[in-house]
Amino acid sequence: MNLKPIREICGMKIFLSQQNYHIGNFESNTRKIIAAIEYAKSQGGELIVFSEMSVCGYPARDFVEFNDFINKCYNSIDEIKQHADTIAVIVGSPARNPSREGKDLFNAAFFLYGQEIKAEIHKTLLPTYDVFDEYRYFEPAYEWKLVEFKGKKLAITICEDIWNINDNPLYRICPMDRLMEQQPDLMINLSASPFDYAHDEDRKAVIKANVLKYKLPMFYCNAVGSQTEIVFDGASYIFDKQGNLCKSFPLFEEATEGVILHEDGSIDSPVLETSASAPATATTLLSLDEHLHTDQIYQALILGIRDYFTKMGFSKAIIGSSGGIDSAVTLALAVVALGKENVRAVLMPSPYSTGHSVDDAVALSKNLGNPYDLIRIDAVYQSLLDTLAPVFNKLPFSLAEENMQSRIRGNILMSIANKFGYILLNTSNKSELSTGYGTLYGDMAGGLGVLGDLYKIQVYALANYINQLHSHSGISLIPLSIIEKAPSAELRPDQKDSDSLPDYAVLDKILFQYIEKRLGPDEIKALGFEAPLVDRILKMVNSNEYKRNQFCPIIRVSPKAFGVGRRVPIVGKYLS
Amino acid sequence: MNLKPIREICGMKIFLSQQNYHIGNFESNTRKIIAAIEYAKSQGGELIVFSEMSVCGYPARDFVEFNDFINKCYNSIDEIKQHADTIAVIVGSPARNPSREGKDLFNAAFFLYGQEIKAEIHKTLLPTYDVFDEYRYFEPAYEWKLVEFKGKKLAITICEDIWNINDNPLYRICPMDRLMEQQPDLMINLSASPFDYAHDEDRKAVIKANVLKYKLPMFYCNAVGSQTEIVFDGASYIFDKQGNLCKSFPLFEEATEGVILHEDGSIDSPVLETSASAPATATTLLSLDEHLHTDQIYQALILGIRDYFTKMGFSKAIIGSSGGIDSAVTLALAVVALGKENVRAVLMPSPYSTGHSVDDAVALSKNLGNPYDLIRIDAVYQSLLDTLAPVFNKLPFSLAEENMQSRIRGNILMSIANKFGYILLNTSNKSELSTGYGTLYGDMAGGLGVLGDLYKIQVYALANYINQLHSHSGISLIPLSIIEKAPSAELRPDQKDSDSLPDYAVLDKILFQYIEKRLGPDEIKALGFEAPLVDRILKMVNSNEYKRNQFCPIIRVSPKAFGVGRRVPIVGKYLS
Fold it and tell me: Quick one: three-class SS letters along A479-524?
């Protein structure tokens, strides 16, 4: 027998594990991490990489300000360390800053091997924009060192650390440049990089730009799973040093897979895309494209709903079903995410509801197979009108009476939810939320905003996509009459959205320029939109901040969602 | 005639102007700033200092991400500059970062003189914790230069820049240390330092510590006024170089005043506190003291209500008046803030309300002189029960029926508000919000949370304080029966808060350790609190994050309020 040792023949077998963590649920996260380590070991893995903040979940937000929480992170690392015997493990966790100066924590990667912490790597570039608050908690790294493992020098970075390669760099430091001075053999990046409909392409371009710049293979491990409003889409990547994509992990699913990195830097896996075939610079979306990645949006929303329920410990959703497109799409998504038996639709016609709305809503639930109730609100509405009559004193019908109907529906939905343990899913879309076209505590009620990051024209695109998915059944899952009729809140006779709002086709494009692109009024007008219309819309957006401020978390699918990633003063007087 | 020039006799006349700005309202802010400049000129002022971000208001949050907004800041500076002719003016504003690298903006002070921008000073230490998000927007300063003016060298810093002097410094740089290398003659600090019941003393101690460390006079100018949830309390200070307090600006009020700084560094103003008489180190509050600065809390809440209404363009408030202490205190504060004719109380007894509650609420409004309505909710409640009967199917009375009553009240209050243009003030206290003892869209409804940062025992202290303030009238403004009775939501027969919650005297102290002090369960138990009780309370807090997430802005009076300054994952599984 004269065989070479396996490693010399095969190179090093490196695994990435993209997993769905539950923030602060150390027991569950640790169990998952250990299971993946054991699996990789069983497959001959020598190194396994997890995503950023894997032990505690990302973003743990102010939980990390509790010493108790950080202790639990360290306890998890101790437990995981025991399994890092014949395999090296890289996990993400907060780490204490031993220095007297600076913030108390680092965003760190722990390199575990031989049942010991062999190295601790700190994140340098701390994203503090949009949904990110990292400088709130963490001190940036001030020194950069490679980790040596089995004769290879690893350049380990965390998420944002590889993103400072554009023309207008956000940071004055480039950590990979510093690491390159020490001549690494490969790059490893632990990420928690969230989904939006333009982000997977951007991300792949940025990773590839790093590979082409540094001429090193890249092992990029991203998180997967939804954390309240932020969806992590996985899509981890392995590139060889020529910039060829050798492994592409699935979107929106957990996966643990390995490849062999040969001594010459090549990777033992078929090339999926050659260096030449995919762009190495991110593209910028200049205007709203309602058809962009509807398939990914669909998957993200389903994961967003499912993870919200799973992680909150709930199983059943209730939805107000009006016969309109927003509630129809929400219902269809919820049925896929939770199962038809776990989604209860409630139809609540008022004196101003049209017959076809009820018919459409019934047809929809029959198509979907979910249980539904028909509860007319006329009696409660009349009772409330009677009760308020001495106060209202025969003043004409106004917005107050419209909102009353909406809030009665909110009360009915929440009452059933409280009685039977449902969670109310909200159906408001981004166009409504932008303009304040909704009733606080009425149709704005709910625990999770399913469509709150989709403009109305994107909701239509999603409805059509859902129907296409089910086209084999021969029926329109979402009845065409729901898609084709003019949108209406049906809170007064013959009401149409277009009575109060500009056409969605124009409205949504202006909103996109203001919200996603952050253009000011003059810049938007310069794109050719009518000046008074632009002023009117921007004023609607800014003067309704107080409503959005009380809205539930919205599953984020765009680069700029309402909620934690968009922070606007309520008492501000700007364009309002 | 052989008189010395006036300046040599008198030194330099320096003004501070603490003003209440409206975020994004450039016209109003600029007008105020110019009026103060003209006043200072008329009083022989040679230099006038305004607070941090004075041109646009603080915190402008994501508004600064709009180029259009920054343009408007520069336009304001251009306008203000014209008035900086014979007087030098220091105003705060965002400034563009001309470098390719780093964030696009600085948090800056502009030194204006001779109708020109003579210098631009950048903030170094960017608070990114609690309510602050400065690193979200701004690049820190990397160089430090004095500004020379009339033979004096000014060390100009912005807010946080003088705060890095404690034992566990948050930052690795101390900007005043760098400026000291250039031998300044005086320190000037532009601040937007918010109120909390412990902060004025901390702030004075920090300013004094700087004076004693650098042996220079300090001109410290703070903002005043409430911005949605954050109250700025003014309290600007002037210290001479010995550490004597020479001028103390009022709390919660605008003021523009000047002193003469002599050539020898002394200040021409009577010493209010000698160097020895006030501490130069901040003290730490170790446990909840419900009597701490009740007077300041009272003023902060009144300013918070008044500014919310003024800046939103509203004038009239509506409040659900239950006969309980929370609504009583809220009503009393609103009457002071807005005038009794502008505050409408609505009493909405249900079948479970006690007679004395209605009597107490009536007596309260008679004492306060505000209009009130009595609207029984029985009929609407019965109508809703009837409507839901087929769904509820004779299940026993539960939380659902309690919440129904609360949401009917929410609907009535919002209906009257919508009909007549009132804003609903919320009356929930911090103990309730902590534990989730409240109904979403019911008693948790409202545009502004008046008591949301006061634990129940602090609400009692405030009620007693209010009654003391009015003791000259011979009556208890807040009827004693309201203060003395056992708290109850009155949503089922004979209900008491103590059925669901621990005694407030213990609950509030545990909550304080968890929320304000961020102690973990073991640390709180080590203070002597019962272990199962601590676990139960912490679980209540963490599992009710989804409710607080939809709550309105809360006027912040403590070092850690719910809302923008406390960011906790909703789907987290930590202590829950």
Answer: CHHHHHCCCCCCCCCCCCHHHHCCCHHHHHHHHHHHHCCCCCHHHH
The partner residue sitting opposite B571, judged by closest CB among A311, A392, A571, is: A311
A150 belongs to a structural domain: yes
CB B82 within 8 A of CB B115: yes
Residues of A in contact with B168 (CB under 8 A): 100
Among the listed residues A265, A253, A258, the one whose alpha carbon sits nearest the alpha carbon of residue A225: A253
B413-427 tens-digit pLDDT: 999 999 999 999 999
Is the separation of the CB atoms in A459 and A326 below 8 Å? yes
CB–CB contact B414 A408 (8 Å): no
A320 shares a domain with A255:
no
CATH number where A165 lies: 3.60.110.10
Statement to judge: residues B257 and B170 lie in one domain: yes
User: Based on the domain organization, do B320 and B215 belong to the same domain?
Assistant: no
**Residue B37, H or E segment:** helix B26-42
End-to-end CA distance of chain B: 82
Domain count, chain A: 2
**CA-closest candidate to residue B238, choices B21, B13, B535, B404:** B13
Amino acid identity of residue B23, one-letter, is: I
Cβ contact, residue pair A569, B416, below 8 Å: no
**Lateral strand order in the sheet of B237-239:** B147-149, B152-158, B186-190, B218-221, B237-239, B245-248
Give percent above pLDDT 90 in chain B. 91
* Domain annotation covers residue B175: yes
Taking only the tens place, the pLDDT of each residue in A520-540 is 999 999 999 999 999 999 999
CB contact under 8 A, B404 and A386: no
pLDDT confidence band for B8 (50 / 70 / 90): very low
Asked if B574's CB is within 8 angstroms of A23's CB, the reply is yes
Catalytic residues of A: 52, 123, 159
Contacts of A69 in chain B (CB under 8 A): 520, 574
Give the active site residues of B. Answer: 52, 123, 159
Tell me the shortest Cα–Cα distance from B171 to chain A, in angstroms: 4
Asked if the C-beta of B103 comes within 8 angstroms of chain A's C-beta atoms, the answer is yes
What tens digit of pLDDT does each residue of B514-547 get? Answer: 999 999 999 999 999 999 999 999 999 999 999 9
Based on the domain organization, do A216 and A334 belong to the same domain? no
Task: Say whether both A369 and A255 belong to one domain.
Answer: no
B106 near B99, Cβ under 8 Å? no
Q: Which residues contact A284 (CB under 8 A, 6 or more apart)?
A: none
Shortest Cα distance, chain A CAs vs residue B485, angstroms: 29
Mean pLDDT in residue range A409-437: 98
Tens-place pLDDT, residues A225-273: 999 999 999 999 999 999 999 999 999 999 999 999 998 889 999 999 9
* A102 located within any domain: yes
**Domain coverage including residue A343:** 294-497
Distances (CA, A) of B481 to A25, A298, A361: 46, 57, 52
Beta strand spans in A114-229 (E): 116-122, 147-149, 152-158, 186-190, 218-221, 224-227
**Burial (Cβ within 10 Å: 0-12, 13-18, ≥19) of residue A163:** buried
Please name the residues in contact with A569: beta carbons below 8 A apart, sequence gap of 6 or more: A545, B23, B24, B57, B59, B60, B61, B63, B227, B228
* Cβ atoms within 10 Å of A340's Cβ, excluding its own: 14
Q: In this structure, are B142 and B33 located in the same domain?
A: yes
Q: Quick one: B234 and B346 in the same domain?
A: no
Closest by CA position to B448, among listed B298, B544, B304 = B304
- Pick the last residue of a domain from A431, A464, A497: A497
Tokens of B387: 């409507």
- Indicate whether B27 and B136 sit together in one domain: yes
ipTM: 0.96
| B114 residue type, one letter | G
Domain boundary at A497, A528, A545, which?
A497
